[in-house]
Amino acid sequence: MIVTLIDYGAGNVTSVERALRRLGAEVCPTNRPEEIAKATSLVLPGVGHCAALLTSLDAHGLRRPLLDAFARGVPFLGICLGLQALFQSSEEAPELPGLGYFQGRVSLLAQTVKLPHMGWNQIRAVGSSHLLGGISPDAYFYFAHSYAAPASGAETAAVCAHGRDFAAVLENGRVFGVQFHPEKSGSSGAKLLENFLRLAA
Amino acid sequence: MSLARRILPCLDTDGARAVKGVHFEGLRDAGDPVELAARYNCEGADELVVLDIAAARDNRPTFLETIRRVAEQLSIPLTAGGGIRSLDDARAVVRAGADKITVNTAAVARPELICELSREFGAQAVVLAIDAKHEHNSWKVRVRGGRTATTWNALDWARRGVESGAGEILLTSVDRDGTQSGFDLLLTAAISRAVSVPVIASGGAKAPQHFLEVFTYGAADAALAASIFHDQVQSIRALKSFLQSHGVAVRLPC
């Protein structure tokens, strides 16, 4: 299958691409709206500052084709900032609107703990999850972020805690988001990506 | 459910080969970095750090090729550093496959480098490496691989680095490095309490007990070692089992 990987210049595009190829997917990195308009599955990786991602989506005219793809039911996986971009706004870049696919605002984790939330943490499934199928409930995933999405939404499939609870996995129809980096999360991360590829096939 | 303490094997390289030495001196060959990376990835390393300790300008393409080949082996994060003096140097290393970059001497020479890197890659990708040596009841920053003394106080520099946008501190005790006599717990605890970001302790590790101490008394978030993992004096798997049995949250490899 062909995965359209949205390449807006983030540092981790290559590692996401490599992880998907290892699982047998054909990966097509692009920042062109017409490629997104005809994509059959989409991955939006992200690392760094939220403003850089949102600005780049607008600079390349990708906002509309992405929202159209969600409406068409094209399977989508947002990673880290790619998850955060799905919300209405983020405290990290309050002046820029998010994609607004999910209600709510991304906010800074509690300052009573060390930030960034950096390293391997466990997550707790909330209800059933397609992405987490076959993965041990004790599995660790690699996180590297200071801002996070609210855990309270109906789309939350798993939560993690660092200072406070936040959404670690989101699922709504064929739109998925993970706050951690599956491409850096060893065999558990590979299994999650494999699940996404299967759901998207 | 809690954030695991991390074990980070480090590969010091001369660009192409892994090397090792005591007190940053007397280097000898320690193997192929690509083979070592693949082994650590399987054994349960939480991240891998690859440093170009020669950091010679003409050797740069070789180091970038090493990063590329190492990154291909990994399904864990990769930190690379040594000789990063500019935004362009950092871009080349990130493009080669590093998730994080470490800066040391160049950041002391020009602290704005930290802000520039943080703006471009995000704080989570910027690791400020500090080599500290105990002198006159305080810890002083050393540069150029620990060889050159400065008058800078390590605690002040750590705080300033974090304010400038560093997302992590890689703290090496010059006094302990290569001695295998244990981490400098006082230094690690002092820096860890002084900053709001995670601290990676380095220098002096040998026994599992050393790691237990640095995660408890040293308040370290991660611990780094090189030769004990290269030489298989200590397996990462056995080390993590030991830590878990003593109540430290670690990610056990499956």
Note the main attributes of this structure.
heterodimer, A: 201 residues, alpha/beta, Rossmann fold, eight-stranded mixed sheet, three-stranded mixed sheet, 13 strands, 27% helix, 29% strand, B: 254 residues, TIM Barrel, eight-stranded parallel β-barrel, two-stranded antiparallel ribbon, 37% helix, globular
Structural topology:
The complex is a heterodimer of chains A (201) and B (254).
Chain A: E1 2-6, H1 13-22, E2 26-30, H2 33-37, E3 42-44, H3 50-59, H4 63-72, E4 76-79, H5 81-84, E5 89-90, E6 105-108, E7 117-122, E8 124-125, E9 140-145, E10 147-148, E11 156-162, E12 164-172, E13 175-178, H6 186-200
Parallel strand pairs in A: 1-2, 1-3, 3-4, 4-13, 5-6
Antiparallel strand pairs in A: 6-10, 7-9, 8-11, 11-12, 12-13
Chain B: E1 6-13, E2 18-22, E3 25-31, H1 33-43, E4 48-52, H2 60-73, E5 78-81, H3 87-96, E6 100-103, H4 105-109, H5 112-121, E7 126-135, E8 138-143, E9 148-153, H6 154-164, E10 168-173, H7 185-194, E11 199-202, H8 208-216, E12 222-225, H9 227-230, H10 236-245
Parallel strand pairs in B: 1-4, 1-12, 4-5, 5-6, 6-7, 7-10, 10-11, 11-12
Antiparallel strand pairs in B: 2-3, 7-8, 8-9
Helix pairs in contact in B: 1-2
Structure in words:
- The complex is a heterodimer of chains A (about 200) and B (about 250).
- With about 200 residues, chain A is of the alpha/beta class.
- Chain A has one domain (about 1-200): Rossmann fold, CATH 3.40.50.880.
- In chain A, about 25% of the residues lie in helices and about 30% in strands.
- Chain A has 6 helices and 13 strands.
- In chain A, the strands form 3 sheets. Chain A has an 8-stranded mixed beta sheet. In chain A, strands 5-6-10 form a 3-stranded mixed beta sheet, with no helix packed on it.
- In chain A, a hairpin with a 1-residue loop joins strand 11 (about 155-160) and strand 12.
- The relative contact order of chain A is 0.17.
- Chain B is α/β, with parallel strands linked by helices and about 250 residues long.
- Chain B has a single domain (about 5-245), classed as Aldolase class I (TIM Barrel).
- In chain B, about 35% of the residues lie in helices and about 25% in strands.
- Chain B contains 10 helices and 12 strands.
- Chain B has helices at about 35-45, 60-75, 85-95, 105-110, 110-120, 155-165, 185-195, 210-215, 225-230, 235-245, and strands at about 5-15, 20, 25-30, 50, 80, 100-105, 125-135, 140-145, 150-155, 170-175, 200, 220-225.
- In chain B, strand 7 and strand 8 (about 140-145) form a beta hairpin.
- The radius of gyration of chain B is 16 Å and the shape is globular.
